[in-house]
Amino acid sequence: MFQNSARPKAIFTMWLQNHGRLLTKDRLKKWGLHMDEIYVLCQADKETREYLFAECSYANRLWNRLSQWAQVHSIVPNTWIQFFQLIIHHLKGKTSLAMLLKMMYAEYIHVLWRERNTRIFKGASREHEALAREVVSIYYFGAEKKVKGLIPHLYF
């Protein structure tokens, strides 16, 4: 994830997520805290790192929308392992597309985690389309010149 143009807080959130350090409900339960384990974004299953970022229907709709915008049409993986392998496969190299996807992945993780926290602690929510627009606007304002060369070719 080197040479990533994402915001530092997004890179940090991504690092925590990739190392299994985010305080998801399943981790908090292992520490002895008692709480509702249902994931707040889709209300369909228990909240785990794997479910939160790869298996949840809300997360899948967000990733599909971002993939569509970046013109990287890939099959949506069913598991976290498949999702992570897909990310690793597409992020190799120093091409403009790889740099775009690095930034997009970090911002995807961050906005999804922030939306989860907003729903838990503030009771507010947004649709996946609003999160996708946020990631795209961050891209337009924060991408490096090499990556910004893709902008005329990408539409939201």
Automatic annotation (TrEMBL):
Domain of life: Eukaryota
Name this polypeptide is given: Uncharacterized protein LOC142166035
Organism: Nicotiana tabacum (Common tobacco)
Source organism phylogeny: Eukaryota, Viridiplantae, Streptophyta, Embryophyta, Tracheophyta
Gene (UniProt): LOC142166035
